[in-house]
Amino acid sequence: MSDRNTKNLENKISSLQTRLDNFDAKIDNTLERLNVDEKNKKKLKNPLHSPQLTEELFAEFKDRTVRTKQIVINNLTSFLTTGGEVLIAVSKQLISTPIATSCICLGPTFVAISTGSLKVVVGVTFIPPNSPANVYELHAANAKEVSLKYSDHNILLKKN
C-alpha cells in the first residue's frame, strides 16, 4: 500500500474517531443535563426521569462492542404509499415485545419495553409532509388504541 493510501486511511480513521468521540460527548452532556437538579430528582415519581436508569439505558449504546437484541420493523410499510419503513432498536438488556395494531395503513411500529419497575411503550411512524389531516387522525386513533391496551405503561410516540 502506498504512503498516500496509508495516510488517507489514517485520516479517515481519525475523522471517524473524532465523530464517535463527539457523539459520546453529546450523550454525556444529555446525561449530565438529566442529573443537574439534584433536589428535584428526589421528588420525581416517574421512573423515566431517573438519572441512574437513564445512564443504564444509554450505557449499552455508548459501548461500541455491544449490539442490540432486536430491531422491530413493520414490514407492511414496504407496500404502502402513505408512509415509510420505521424501526425501533431495543437494547438486549431490556425485555421487549412488538405490539400488533389494527391500523396498518400508516405503517406504525410499537414495542413494549420493561426493565425493573419501568414499563414503556415506544411508538414511531412516518407520515410524509403535506399529508391530509385524516392521516394524522388515523395515527392518533392508533396511538390511543395502544395506550388504552397498555394503560400501565408510559407512552412515548414519535412521528417522522
Plain-language structure description:
Keywords: Coiled coil. The chain has two domains: 60 residues; 90 residues, no CATH class. The chain is 42% helix and 21% strand. The chain is built from four helices and six strands, in the order αααβββββαβ. The chain has a four-stranded mixed beta sheet, with helices on one face. A two-stranded antiparallel sheet has the order 1-2. Strand 5, helix 4 and strand 6 form a beta-alpha-beta unit. Helix 1 packs antiparallel against helix 3. About 15% of the residues have low confidence.
Counting DSSP E segments of at least 2 residues, the number of strands comes to: 6
Strand residue content:
15-25%
The backbone outline, from C-alpha atoms, is extended
SSE pattern: HHHEEEEEHE
Assembly context of the chains: single chain
Radius of gyration: 20 Å
Number of H- or I-type helical stretches: 4
The helical percent reads: 40-55%
Summary?
This protein has 160 residues and is an alpha+beta fold.
Features:
160 residues, 4-stranded mixed β-sheet, two-stranded antiparallel ribbon, 4 helices, extended
Sequence-ordered SSE layout with sheet pairings:
Blueprint (H helix, E strand, L loop, with lengths): L2 H33 L2 H6 L7 H12 L7 E4 L13 E4 L4 E5 L9 E7 L2 E8 L7 H17 L4 E6 L1
Parallel strand pairs: 5-6
Antiparallel strand pairs: 1-2, 3-4, 4-5
Helix pairs in contact: 1-3
